[in-house]
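Throughout this chapter, every protein is written as a compact record of paired, labelled lines. An example of such a record is reproduced below:
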Amino acid sequence: MRDCVHAPKDNAKIDAFQDDERIVLATRWFHLVRVGRDVLNPSHPLHALFAGDAPPHMALLSSDGAKRIDMQLMPTSRALWTNMLAMLKRDYEKPADAALGDWRGLLSKFDVLDAKRAKLMGEKHRATNPKKVADLESEIEAIDEEKAKLQSSERRIVDLGLKATKPL
């Protein structure tokens, strides 16, 4: 991502996509490299990536660097998502859109468990009866075990299997 002289707040570029959960989650499979406005200077070491009459504001590169998708100005969420999905399809064995559906469902389960745990922790801190405290600790431990299982599922879901690349 290239900072732009026309954008007073360059963080606004990234923040614009925070409302699209698909994009936020899919960024896990990408590395964001932000370059300053000075990349347009021919003496900048990365200038070749942003050279030309209409240098891109954002570029997606495949894991092996062989494929590149340039985006002029700031893309819409839909355009960015479409391009991210295309690059993920190219680079990974498993389909990212299916994994995202499973992942989003899993995140909802985390939310439910976190809310239950917070409620039980509050009850535990207010409890004075040792038996009640022990019961609440047992319930909290069960939630922590369930969360550990979900975390294991999450690792499996987000591992899309990077395709082997051919040496350049």
Observations:
- The chain has two domains: 11-91, 96-158.
- Residues 120 and 139 are 8 Å apart (CA to CA).
- The mean pLDDT is 90.
- Residues 96-158 form one domain.
